[in-house]
Amino acid sequence: MPVPAEYVRSLHAYELRILLALERLMRRYQWVPLEVLRPATGFSESELAYRLGRLMAMGMVRYEKTPYEGYALVFDGYDTLALHTLTRRGTVQALGCLIGVGKESEVYEAMGLGVVVLKFHRVGQRSFQSARLKRGYMPEAGHCPWLFASSHSAKMEYDALKTLHPAVSVPLPIDQNRHVVAMSFVPGVNLSRAALAEPEIILDEILDNIREAYRLGIIHGDLSEFNVMVDEKQCWLIDWPQWVEIAHPNAGEILARDIGNILQYFKRKYGIEYAFEEALARVVE
Ligand SMILES: Nc1ncnc2c1ncn2[C@@H]1O[C@H](COP(=O)(O)OP(=O)(O)O)[C@@H](O)[C@H]1O
Ligand SMILES: [Mg+2]
Question: Checking DSSP bridges between strand 189-190 and strand 228-230, what pairing results, if any?
C-alpha cells in the first residue's frame, strides 16, 4: 500500500532529504549506519533523530540492530520518493484507489491531467524480505536487491510501452520514475473475467497485436488471459516488464508459450479451435 498522498504532501523538506540520502547510500549499505547518514544530511544529532523517528512512525524507514545498527528505506519510503517526483513533474495530483494487485505489483488510479494509472512494481519484496528475516541477511546482487529490481522492472515496462504505442494496443505511457510507471487507464475488464459475445473477433485482435509487437522487435513474455484487457470491441495487451527482443536466444519458445496460452484459453472457455501453427505463421510472417 503506498503512502497516502497527505503524507507525501506533509513531508518536511528535511525528511525528504533523509529519504534521498538513504536511497543513495543503499547502493553501498544494506543498513545505513548513523555515522554515515549524519554527514550525508548535514543535520545535528537531535534533528536527525527527530526526523528519523517521524519517518519510522510513517512506515517509510526501518531501523535494525542486526547484523549491525543502521537505517534502511522500505517500500513505503521508496513509494514516497517516486510520488514526490511524479507530483513535482505534474504527472500526479492525487492518488486514488487500488484497482489491481498482481504477483509483483500494485496498480492504483490517480488524478493527473485526467485519470492516470500508477503501477508500483514490487519485485522480490516478499522473497528478499523473508530471506532476510529467516536467515538474517540479504542475498547477493547489491545491498538492496528489491529496490534495484523494482525500478529495473518499471523501466523495462515503460520502454516497451514507448516502443509499442500506438502501433500495438497498449496503455499510453505517460511517465516513469524509480519503480513506478504512469500510463493511461484502460476501460476494459480482464479477459479472464469477461464473457465475450464474439470471442473470435477478440482472438483475431489479440493475434494481430502480438504480430505488431513482433514486427517492432518485441515479444511479451508473460501473455495470458490475465494480461489482456477487453471490452466488446477491442483488446489491450498489458503488463510488459518481462518482454524480450526477437533476437533473444529463447525467443521462439517464449513466443510459442505466449501464443499457446492465448489459444488454450479460447479453446477452454469458448471452444474455439485455432491451429497453433496457423497462429504462429500469422504472427511471424
Ligand atoms: N492501464 C491500466 N488500466 C486499467 N487497469 C489496469 C491497467 N494496468 C493494470 N491494470 C489492472 O491491474 C492489474 C495488474 O496489472 P498488471 O500490469 O497485470 O500487473 P502484475 O504484473 O502485477 O500482474 C491488471 O490485471 C488490471 O486489472
Ligand atoms: Mg498481470
Answer: antiparallel
Residue 239 is a catalytic residue: no
Residue pointed to by grid coordinates 548535514: 42
Place of cell 534502511: 72
From atom 26 of ligand 1, which residue's Cα is the shortest distance away?
Answer: 100
- Nine cell digits for residue 34: 548513523
- Residue 144: per-residue pLDDT: 77
Ligand 1 midpoint to CA 100 (Å):
6
Average pLDDT over residues 35-64: 96
Question: The domain spanning residue 150 has which CATH number?
Answer: 3.30.200.20
Same structural domain, 97 and 147: yes
Where does a domain end: 151, 166, 184? 184
Residue with cell 512512525: 57
What is the rounded distance in angstroms from the CA atom of residue 31 to the CA atom of residue 112?
A: 35
**pLDDT 10s digits, 89-147:** 999 999 999 999 988 999 999 999 999 999 999 997 665 555 454 444 444 445 678 89
Binding site membership of 63 for ligand 1 (Cβ less than 6 Å): no
Q: How far is it, in rounded angstroms, from Cα 277 to Cα 194?
A: 26
Domain housing 223 = 189-284
Is 100 close to ligand 1, i.e. is its CB under 6 Å away?
A: yes
Q: Exactly one of 222, 231, 239, 258 is catalytic; which is it?
A: 222
124-133 tens-digit pLDDT: 766 555 545 4
Residue 237 · residue 223 · CB < 8 Å: yes
